[in-house]
Amino acid sequence: MIRLDRRDIIQTLLIVRSTPVQVSGGDLQRLRQQNTLNSLRVLREARAPLTLTELVAQTGLSRASVGDVVAELQQRGWIAEVDPTPGTLGRPAKRYRFRTDVGHVLGIDIGVHKVLAVVTDLAGRVIASGRVAVDRHTARHERLEAVWRAIDAALVAAGRAASDLWGVTAGSTGVVNREGLVTRVHDLPDWAGVELAGHLGQRLPCPITIENDSKLAALAEQRLGVAAGVQDLVYLHVGRRPGAALILNGRLHHGFSGATGEVGLMEVTGWRTMAGHLEGCRAAVGASPEEAARLVFDAARAGDREAQAAVDTYAHHLALGTAAMVLTLDPELVVLGGGFSRSADVLLPALNRALEPHCVRVPDIRPSTLGEECVALGGACLALDDVDERLFSLEGAILDPAAPQGVS
Amino acid sequence: MIRLDRRDIIQTLLIVRSTPVQVSGGDLQRLRQQNTLNSLRVLREARAPLTLTELVAQTGLSRASVGDVVAELQQRGWIAEVDPTPGTLGRPAKRYRFRTDVGHVLGIDIGVHKVLAVVTDLAGRVIASGRVAVDRHTARHERLEAVWRAIDAALVAAGRAASDLWGVTAGSTGVVNREGLVTRVHDLPDWAGVELAGHLGQRLPCPITIENDSKLAALAEQRLGVAAGVQDLVYLHVGRRPGAALILNGRLHHGFSGATGEVGLMEVTGWRTMAGHLEGCRAAVGASPEEAARLVFDAARAGDREAQAAVDTYAHHLALGTAAMVLTLDPELVVLGGGFSRSADVLLPALNRALEPHCVRVPDIRPSTLGEECVALGGACLALDDVDERLFSLEGAILDPAAPQGVS
DNA sequence: GTGAATATCTATGGAGCCTGTAATAAAGGG
DNA sequence: CCCTTTATTACAGGCTCCATAGATATTCAC
Lengths: 408, 408
Known about the structure:
Chain A is of the alpha/beta class and 408 residues long. In chain A, 37% of the residues lie in helices and 18% in strands. Chain A has helices at 28-45, 52-59, 63-76, 140-158, 196-201, 213-223, 275-279, 289-302, 305-329, 344-355, 374-392, and strands spanning 50-51, 79-82, 95-98, 104-110, 114-121, 126-133, 165-172, 175-176, 182-184, 208-212, 233-237, 243-248, 251-252, 333-337, 364-367. A five-stranded mixed beta sheet of chain A has the order 6-5-4-7-10. A five-stranded mixed beta sheet of chain A has the order 13-12-11-14-15, with helices on both faces. In chain A, a hairpin with a 4-residue loop joins strand 5 and strand 6. In chain A, helix 6 (213-223) crosses helix 11 (374-392) and helix 8 packs across helix 9 (305-329). The longest helix of chain A has 25 residues, at 305-329. The first copy, chain A, is globular, with a radius of gyration of 24 Å. At the A-B interface, helix 1, helix 2, strand 12 and helix 9 of A face helix 2, strand 12, helix 10 and helix 12 of B. Chain A binds a DNA duplex (30 and 30 nucleotides) through residues 26-29, 31-32, 35, 51-53, 61-65, 67-68, 84, 86-94.
């Protein structure tokens, strides 16, 4: 993850405070700015366009002030007037809505088999996407070329230019450190050390964040998927090489060097070799490694005893690493994502049974509801988080939607 | 973790919240309140008393406004004037300091062998403490009685009454859930299910929080001890029954049911029985279980091969559980606390060696610098955090130090 | 000891923002 | 066409902040 913000550590005589000093009072114009941003936020989070009266109720300001604020927001282009709804008693009130189309963000999934770029508006709605197929043997420069093709396709389909983007987040396999550098990769031999942020920055004039793909998938599930609103969760990527990502206290946990959720590196868990139990099954004979697992899950579902035993063995090993994380973190929820989660109807009960003996309280386990776009969507979520922070912080407030890139 | 505040409950019954959305702008008086709190915070976190000019520089307000604000704060009793420092050029400026003595908090450690209560001022300085010895066989009501004796002793020594307390946090062994109930205890047979918050609330008219003891120790290390300022850390309680607590993103991680850091429950780690490797040593023959470990560490330090092997075995098991947490969370630091940490000179290198093969990056490991008061100190820290939140949030701002319990 | 230099404090005027109230405008129903 | 209901507009009043200028207190140089 890039964008290292080093908060000052304020020391009192004895105590190191957890909350840094933030100056947020001040000028009268500051107050107006705060009220403006507050109104904008209320409008942004409302499901439907709001009338001034509704806005008055929700912001606590007087009608006159809200009127002023709304006029300024409209003039600056942040909000738009909507046709008043007829059929109400009395004089119909003007309605205003947040203009979700004044800015866009880009989420990119740079995977082993595909590159996917999605363009969303400020509400997180997907406007368009671009997809380019690659494979394990695609060289680094070709993969980077594919990234640009996917981005261009998505932008063209969305009818937008790179200058319309307010933020970009790309997800990559491998460990991504605080500086946005990909430090360790298993799947792609020449991918380690790639300078993604710098590369993308050559043509994308906005803040760029690089993050691990599983982490972005976890974020997507927490924002848009099956874990909506859950504060503490473990995202389990189940596939040939399982992995994990954590949402703690509602935020993505990045770790000191980016290497979180790597419990599978411990030999006792058997995560490195556990897929072999599935591939060695009779039900998988002759199939490619990618297809083997699905065949075995299908066979297990159909009642094949050997396949069921293989699934149980796989689940047993998966449970070892999962239990370590669950016992450490006591999350509310475990989300099953990744390729094998499509066979969650077979895998989930097996995992539940295997976790039982280890855990004090087996958390709720749910299969992912997002498809293979989850990483790109999570990238868009993270970029939108960043936009939000810039937009609603008084310090770096974006006053004019025309030039949002000007951070701080 | 609980926050018992009867006034809160009454208000909730009476007041129907009109605005679900959090409002933070608003009135002109609100702006003044914000500026006042801001100035108070700057004064509170300054190392030395400040002049008006310095305050002007740090708050960004004009001299006139700061003058007003300071006059009000002084009149309300939050700050005090200090004798001007002579020897400066020009007219000497008045200096003001935050009055750390207007409020106090209480941190309580309800342990197996002792009950310790510390009274601190608002800067976290320990004013007085009270200590009562108990043991494993002390019955529940006797232990609760001991808690009151420790509290009373600390209050008497501090020259304060219960009504002077702005917050109380008690640390207890066992798992403490979100409601503040002690749900699972190993050491004390009749302690599970004790209603600590309700019990303490009978005579302490302020917000009361109950938390697990290791968690409070971790917090103390992050605020006052060896981990000052570290955002992500694993606190390892090494003793006959090892445990762990986590600070993530600068905050105590409580977990969904409070059972975090329980990786030792997995049989493969061997945490439940690993102390036996030390106690079985020749160096420990005849010693009580409490003393055995220290004797073995001493022998290992002196060169006893058998003792060194026992320490290595202990460290090997400790490393298994620690590696699971480190690989999961990728913390910046691991803090060694608990009884055995006094022999950190022997244990720490052994643990480091044992972690090496498991971890990608072995985090920094440091022994605790706080003594056995760490749990009570951590309690005071948590209570102070809560005071801070009430003090500096606009919603529940404490306007008058005379009656701080009245939140909002 | 006296005056210059420096920095703080005190007081006043002006501007901006929010609030509340009264008057005006716009729709639907009878 | 008039009445009811609701939204908008206009204006006075109060509060807070800022800028400026003059008064005050201390140190330093001679």
